[in-house]
Specification:
mainly alpha; elongated; membrane; transmembrane; transmembrane helix; DoxX family protein
């Protein structure tokens, strides 16, 4: 049952957003008119010329990703602001429909919990950039900090890293091979 529940929740939320997202483009489901401020707000979004296609396109992409089961955490992140705005719209401008709102928020929250391991890096307060060609330079610790660390270990005591204990056995410092690099390469080729 525990394997089936995330699949059912993912499929329901994906189908919901795919259908209503496509309805924004194809208008196959009749939508009731929105009175008052809610109608004015939706009219302003439609008049902008880009906002409705952006919102509905996000719903279609998020729903399709959820239905396919691919990139589910990305789909949940894409749909989260849409869901927040749907809830805010109904709370502030058009009260009602709270059952459907609770259903949508519940599915999103459950799926976020079910895929919580995928969000571990996003929620890491001590995140660092990936080291690489375009990463920010990692400056060495100031000399004062290095001296304090050495002093706290006591005289003649090195860290595991300084001894090379973290490295694989082949990479640890050891007695230097007296042969030249060319001789070592020739010996390794001959041994094959």
């Amino acid at each position: 049952m525990s394997r089936l529940l995330p699949t059912v929740a993912r499929s329901l939320l994906g189908l919901l957003f795919l259908v209503f997202g496509l309805n924004g483009f194809l208008h196959f489901l009749p939508m009731p008119p929105h009175p008052g401020r809610a109608g004015e707000f939706l009219g302003a979004l439609a008049a902008s010329g880009y906002m409705f296609p952006l919102i509905k396109g996000t719903e279609v992409v998020g729903g399709a990703l959820l239905l396919s089961g691919r990139l589910v955490p990305l789909a949940l992140i894409l749909l989260a602001p849409v869901i927040v705005n749907i809830v805010a719209f109904h709370l502030a401008l058009e009260p009602g429909g709270y059952g459907m709102l609770a259903f949508i928020v519940g599915l999103e929250a459950y799926l976020a919990w079910a895929y919580r391991d995928s969000f571990a890096g996003v929620l890491n307060p001590n995140a660092r950039p990936v080291a690489g060609e375009h990463a920010a330079p990692q400056w060495p610790a100031p000399a004062r900090e290095r001296a304090r660390d050495r002093a706290s270990r006591g005289p003649g005591r090195a860290t595991r890293r300084e001894h090379g204990a973290d490295a694989p056995a082949a990479a640890r410092p050891g007695p230097r091979d007296a042969r030249s690099k060319g001789q070592r390469c020739a010996a390794s080729v001959a041994s094959r």
